[in-house]
Amino acid sequence: MSHDLIKIGLVFSYSLSYYRDIVRGIRVFSESNPQWVFTPIAPEPGAIESIRPLDLNGLIAHIFTGELADALLRLRKPVVNVSGVLPELKIPRVIADHEQVGRLAAEHFFDRGLRQFGFVGYTNHEFSTGRELGFRREIERAGFTTSSYLSNDRLHPEPTGLWRWDDKLEHWLIGLPRPVGVLCSHDIQGVQLSEVCHRVGLRVPDDIALLGVDDDDLFCTLARPPLSSIALPGERIGFEAARMLHGLLSRSKKRLQPWTVKLPSPGVMTRRSSDILAIEDGEVAKAVRYIRANALTPMGVPDILETVAVSRRSLERRFRAILGRGLAEEICRVRIAKAKELLSETEIPIAQVATNSGFSEAKHLSTAFRRKTGLTPTEFRFSNRTR
After folding, report:
1. Which helix or strand (DSSP H or E) is residue 39 part of?
2. Backbone angles phi, psi at 354, to 5 degrees
């Protein structure tokens, strides 16, 4: 097989940037496997039946219905699934860590001082239930509760399609305590929920801070105001799915026990929909604003104290009571978040990452980064990129 073409079917909709990112990751893997050639296939049972004469070697698919799964299994070819919708399928798959996504959302809202929370999603799709579970558990761990609005609609043609809004949703939204942070299970819901807020006179983010998932730049910038969103590791999912399929094709035994690989989100992309600081203590709020505006420069705790009218001891105590961490920890948190962004999205040298994220030198970044994440910056970059 090493000298012959290996024909791979790609069963995807290309309507969202997440799907296209997965395909990009597959392409990156194929650069070291030049014998791979691809056939794009519509994610419909009829289309699957029609490609039988092509005699594909294997497929990578976003499987969101049982009918599509059945059609793929009838081909009797190795398949890797990249969908977080139907966990019961006996098909190997690579997906995002949906519970980790929910935890990131909770942390994002905590960092903004929010103490009231909501979730909008579905009752019967694993990606939504996982995100809600991670979100709810993290919030309950901090001593708070979550109100959820869940749809049990059967969605076609894909689970991230348009939501059919109704009066019950508006009633739920109006009844939420404010200010409140609401996680939507994907970006399209976030855009639509933003419009519902406008319709019922709720201000985003002052009354309702909104957060989506997928970080689809088109949909996020369509929202009013632009939607904050949790990025998914689409390229890594595609790369690992291709690696998994390569393993299936390389083995003599085609029937293997199914397994699931879960990959973490690279983080939250903050836009105006969650740009709120719901902290009633004015001096703490002032300190937080100063840190977030200046943490990427050579500043320290003494600089913060020049902006507030209380002693360091008093500010530290009040800051920790509200945010659960001290002033220096908050400075480090903001810097580490910036470093993660640069490590995930750029190839600039580690020394430049350190400078651009507020650290005086690379070794200080490495020490702080390992303490917070358990990884060196180089290890984090490798684990969050396909190359």
Report:
1. strand 36-41
2. -60, -50
CATH number of 98-233+268-274, picked from 3.40.50.2300, 3.30.70.2190, 3.40.50.80, 3.40.50.150: 3.40.50.2300
What does the alpha-carbon distance between residue 217 and residue 208 come to, in Å, rounded to a whole number?
21
Going by their DSSP bridges, the two strands 180-184 and 36-41 should be labelled as unpaired
Instruction: List the one residue out of 93, 97, 98, 59 whose CA is nearest residue 258.
Output: 93
Peptide bond into 87 cis (omega under 30): no
pLDDT category at 154 given cuts 50, 70, 90 is: low
Domain covering 282-383 assigned CATH 3.10.270.10 in the classification: no
pLDDT in tens, 219-276: 999 999 999 999 999 999 999 999 999 999 987 444 555 689 999 998 899 899 998 8
Q: How far from 290 is each of 13, 135, 302, 308, 376, CA to CA, in Å?
A: 44, 28, 12, 10, 28
